[in-house]
Amino acid sequence: MKLEVLEKDRYYHIYNRGINGNNIFENDANKHYFLKQLGKYSEDKISIFAYCLMNNHFHLVIRLNVEEKEVTQAFSNLFNSYAKAFNKQTQRTGSLFEKHFKRIMLKDENYLKQLIIYVHLNPKHHFDLDFKDFKFSSYQAFLSDKETKIERDEVLTLFGDLENFIFCHNQKNNLLNETYTFE
């Protein structure tokens, strides 16, 4: 599979999972550490619009603020740093992630909005968990007044306002509930 070239000022869905579908996060501390390392290695290189950390995979919605080489190196440093710490903690060796992180360039604003919702609803897709209460997605950062590295204002402007942001998430969640309801 040929990897999509990353371009400055473009939006991307970045994701990866554990090798063989294995967990990359064993506990909340692992997820906190991953987010800390993400902030450390990506600061000023990317803007983060959404994220979700599941046990065996993660999703990021980002925009590149610098050239590809810098961002690719930052992600490499992040994943290597995290894998070394995880392997040490869990007394394992070898690769943690599938070979390369996946990336899909977002073609338009509507795709960006739909992807943000998809990423936030990921706990529903995989574990039938309420996305509103899931601790390791960026959804709650949009509802909070606390300082965040998420591009809160830009995303809320994209959706029109906070009320519409919430409405769009609930509407998509309701559609998923209808899909899974059997009579």
UniProtKB/TrEMBL annotation:
Gene Ontology molecular function, alphabetical: DNA binding; transposase activity
One Gene Ontology term from the biological process aspect of the record: DNA transposition
Pfam families assigned: Y1_Tnp (PF01797)
Domain Transposase IS200-like: 7-122
SUPFAM superfamilies, per database record: Transposase IS200-like (SSF143422)
Protein name per its UniProtKB record: Transposase IS200-like domain-containing protein
